[in-house]
Amino acid sequence: MQVHVLLFGQLAENAVPEIVLNNLPDTDSLVEAMNKQFPSLRDMQYRIAVNRKLVEGNTVLENNVVVALLPSFSGG
Description:
Number of strands: 5
Shape: globular
Largest sheet: 5 strands, mixed
Structural class: alpha+beta
Number of helices: 2
Strand content: 25-35%
Order of helices and strands: EHEHEEE
Distance between the termini: 39 Å
């Protein structure tokens, strides 16, 4: 099972803009894997979108899903 992860803004600057991870059953596992691989993400706040929809709490991931990590931002 593959999960395509896109990172934006400061998250991409502190890690990578895109990465493919394997065998992650849910978003909690994804966050844990990202924190292990990129420790600088631990202290950053961000929202998670799964297939272009913001999610709250732990969400089950399916094969070839696209997950976006979105940093806090403000508009004007």
